[in-house]
Amino acid sequence: MTAKIKTIHLLLLEPSSNQAEVIINSLRNRGFAVRATQVLTTEELSTALEKGVSDLLIADLEHQELSAKQAIEQIDSFGRDIPCIVMMNEHSDDILIECMRYGAVDGVTKANLDLLCLKVERELASLETRRGKTQSDLQLKATEKRCTLLLDNSQDAIAYVHDGMHVYANNAYLELFEYSDHDELLCVPALDMIAKESQDEFRQYLKSISATSDQQNFSFTGTKSDLSHFEAIMTLSTANYDDEVCTQLLIRPAADNAELEEKLKELSAQDTLTDLYNKNYFTDQLQHAIESANDQAETYSVLYITYDQHEQILGEYGIAGADQITVDCSKWLSEQVKEEFLLARIGDHSFSMLLPNSAGIKSRDMAQELCEKVSSHLFDIEGHTIKITFSIGICPVGDSSSDPAQILSDAISASARVDNGNGFKVFNKAVRAAGSEQDVQMLDKVQEAIESGRIQLMYQPIVKLHGEEKLLYQVLLRLSDEKGNMLESSKVFPVAKAAGLGEKLDRWIIKQSLKSILTQKVDKKTQLFVNLSSVSLIDKNIVNFIEKTITASGLPKESIVFQIEEGDAVNHLKRVIALCAELRSKGFALCLSNFGAQPDQKTLVDQLDVNFVKVADEKVKSLHTDSESAEFVQELLNEIHNRDKHSIIPKVEEAAMLAALWPLNVKYIQGYYLQRPSLKMDYDFASGGF
């Protein structure tokens, strides 16, 4: 699958060409085709705005000649809809609030280009939505004009009724009921146009149409203005007129063959080869499902089903053979599914199924069942027995859905990611956001590992070098693919976050960590270091979850040391300061990890109330071979020890590193030299002292 390339027409208010190039490259690596214009003065900005429409402005707040505020005002004066993201040296809520008050949509620090890319993607999606809405509004107005013209000149009698009163009637409707004036009819209730013997039935149909939105037909006796009667057929359907939800009345003389019309309607919804519903009908019903999902909070799932051997069958048996398998497959599918499931043929060898009241697990179980059953079923072509397998894509339909074509496209996209056929994939929005084919594949592997239970915790000891002995382990999450190969954690977690799995994984790890202390029967003084991702840091319910979970386990609150990465702390500093203070006040232990990765953030040790500080991996890997690295690490350790925090050096991989660390007064060390991550907490701390 090739990632879709999105083109950005970008305005860069950035004085440094080098920094501008860094921003452009970051966006290109994210999957955008960037067409950038660097503007530094009001004249250059005016020229750019006159030339054409741009999509986004990224503005450096430090640029003095043309401020972000002036640039936004100039854009407004041109009547352009160009969102602006400001770039700050350091994050400041006050500065960001000021910028947003004069029109910026968001802000980000210059160092956090990953966050910039995500915010750019979000703003471009919002811009596309706004532009799409503008175009839709214009098209709607043009369509309404054409519809009004068609209604006025239609030979069919058509009227719109709201709360029982006419709000519109065309000329054919006036002629049918022999009214000469529109205004006169608008004062007449729709019920008065129907003979008394048909009124109760009419009321029931009105109730039914408001409850189900399904089109209704019934025969009735009409009453003209002179009180004479006539027989006719009325078709009722929901509609909008002048922004009001109305009921449309379409009336034809009874001489019309209603039964024939119904038959033609049925045939128009049918696939001629398989007798299943066709794609047009399925799309119409999917639109109704979307409306129900939005109006009544109902849930649906779409399954896109295609058999994998189509090309092979087509090559060996020709079109007739492929059609025979398609027909046999449609009959087999019809036998497998319940009546309330809508099954349709939507392509040469593909089918779609709409499952009502369907959450994720139900649709996955259905897909799994179909894959297993069809692989053991024998089909016949010209006396030859063959087997087929399915590739199934699943797409949920909820209150965030709006376009049937997009839902089908997403389901097809999911099925295309089934490697070697005979399986199913669930569509995830994060696939659209994945920056590369590798990210898409990793996302698939992560989801499969979680769903298949190929997820486990491993433990690496953190051992004293100086100071009192403690039983400490770092908890590491390991996921493996179906072949047993470990997935690289540095690639797993960014993809998991993008897929919305970060919070779920954090909570699972906390629960499993506590469970492992109990099931492995280790000393209850053991402390496990567990990472909290950026998603959990901003979760308002995380403290409540931690407190309830640890209390339920019966273990001491210090059993888990919650580890916060320096970069996440910087990006959410205000929230992390409050979170650390709250957790410490309740008796929980904390660790700041990756300390020193950003040299200008040494003051974090002052701002965060933590028990442990772990130095950044990249800063320690060469300290035994490079004197400058050793000096820098010593500075970091001084910052830690001067504030009475316990220091931890990770990535101790060889004896030479241990020798270099000894004189630096490090409290704890961690690394392969001591022990590789293990499924059990079995390190002998008593014999491992130094």
From TrEMBL:
Organism of origin: Aliikangiella marina
Residue span(s) of domain EAL: 439-690
Transport as UniProt keyword: no
One BP term from GO: phosphorelay signal transduction system
CDD domains found in the cross-reference section: EAL, GGDEF, REC
Occurrences of domain GGDEF (ranges): 298-429
Molecular function, one GO term: cyclic-guanylate-specific phosphodiesterase activity
Presence of the UniProt keyword Disulfide bond in the record: no
Annotated InterPro entries: CheY-like_superfamily, Cyclic-di-GMP_PDE-like, EAL_dom, EAL_sf, GGDEF_dom, Nucleotide_cyclase, PAS-like_dom_sf, Rev_trsase/Diguanyl_cyclase
UniProt keyword terms in alphabetical order: Phosphoprotein
Residue numbers of 4-aspartylphosphate PTMs: 60
Pfam families linked: EAL (PF00563), GGDEF (PF00990)
SUPFAM superfamilies: CheY-like (SSF52172), EAL domain-like (SSF141868), Nucleotide cyclase (SSF55073), PYP-like sensor domain (PAS domain) (SSF55785)
Protein's UniProt name: EAL domain-containing protein
Ranges where the Response regulatory domain occurs: 9-125
